[in-house]
Design a protein that fits this description.
Elements lengths: L1 H4 L1 E10 L3 H8 L5 H4 L3 E8 L2 E6 L7 E11 L4 E8 L1 E11 L5 E11 L2 H5 L1 H29 L4
Antiparallel strand pairs: 1-7, 2-3, 3-4, 4-5, 5-6, 6-7
């Protein structure tokens, strides 16, 4: 029961005005996320396959995770990482093509919260934590749409 209180599963679907290989390329470079996603405060590469990320959404707390690449498959459009830190679990992007050549990026996340503040308020805070995540994802989607519109792709 206690683990279920601290577990979150998220799904977001982003329609994007660029071909899948370009969307994949942008999502595969998390070091650039702070350029287009305002809630991503910092991304620091640790090794060839891991990095540290700090982010903050609407609520007044910051999360910090280390992402460890577990799958990078351009042909399938899949980027997947294991997370440790304030969140522990799995995060995945899957990028596919729409009929018109634009893209759909699907974000899946299945994590357990380790941050003490969020664990302490697990039951009463759950709706606010979910809304906070949704707000962050809406801003990430808008930021990436804008970024893709400004970039000149080769």
């Amino acid at each position: 029961m206690a683990a279920a209180m601290h577990r979150y599963r998220f799904l977001s679907v982003w329609e994007l005005p660029a071909p899948p290989h370009l969307v994949y390329r942008v999502l595969a470079d998390p070091r650039a996320y702070p350029v287009w996603w305002p809630q991503i405060l910092e991304v620091r590469q640790l090794t060839d396959t891991s990095g540290r990320m700090r982010f903050r959404s609407l609520l007044p707390y910051e999360l910090s995770v280390t992402a460890h690449e577990s799958r990078q498959d351009p042909a399938a459009g899949v980027l997947e990482a294991r997370l440790t830190g304030d969140l522990q679990g799995l995060t995945r992007w899957t990028v596919t093509s729409r009929d018109d050549g634009a893209s759909v990026a699907v974000f899946h996340e299945d994590v357990e919260v380790n941050k003490p503040l969020m664990r302490a308020f697990a039951v009463p805070g759950r709706p606010a934590f979910r809304a906070n995540h949704a707000w962050m994802m809406r801003h990430g989607h808008a930021g990436l749409r804008h970024y893709l519109g400004l970039c000149h792709w080769s």
